[in-house]
Design goal:
By secondary structure, this protein is an all-alpha fold. It contains 4 helices and no strands. Helix 1 packs antiparallel against helix 3, helix 2 runs antiparallel to helix 3 and helix 3 runs antiparallel to helix 4.
Length: 213
Amino acid sequence: MGTKTVDGAGTGAEAKNDETTTDATAADVTETAAGPEGEVSAEAAEAKDAQEAEQSAEETGETGETDDELADDELAALAGEEPSGVGQGAGAVVSVALGLVSLTGGWIGTVAAARETLIGQLQTSSSASVAKQVKEVYGDAWATTALWAGLFALAALLTGVVVLARPAFGAPGKPQAPWIKSVAWAGVALGVIGLLLAVLKYSDALLALPSTS
């Protein structure tokens, strides 16, 4: 009975040892088989990540260069267009201002008229006829006012025409801003009206001297 127990125990122990050895061997085989594949997968993942990083860097570099180029182009365009646009806009505004001065009068016309009145008073004797006194004191002063108004109107007209004609002598393909055209045309219109009124007043066709007879 004792012998059988020992033999049975020994046989069971050997069986357990054989099963443990078999499991260890299978685990080693599994690790050995999975090891290269795991390494290959890790290397492939690293290579893929590196490639994606390079592509991202290239795209970022290209985008940065594109943005820089666009910024340079915009600055060049602004540098080329802004001075001409500013000058034309200023010219249009000046044209309108000159036209308004020709219609409403300026200090230089007022001073010139007052000076002409003073000269007429000094040069005309009290014994002169009424018609001569009126002409020398008032007529010449009004004519002087009309003359200066006509000069301002002519300046407004010429300035507006120059602004409107400027794009024809500039770089092709650069249209003039609509507001510049509108203001320049307004200056031209005011200049024409002021010049017409000045000519009519200077020639006594408008607001002539009253009759003294």
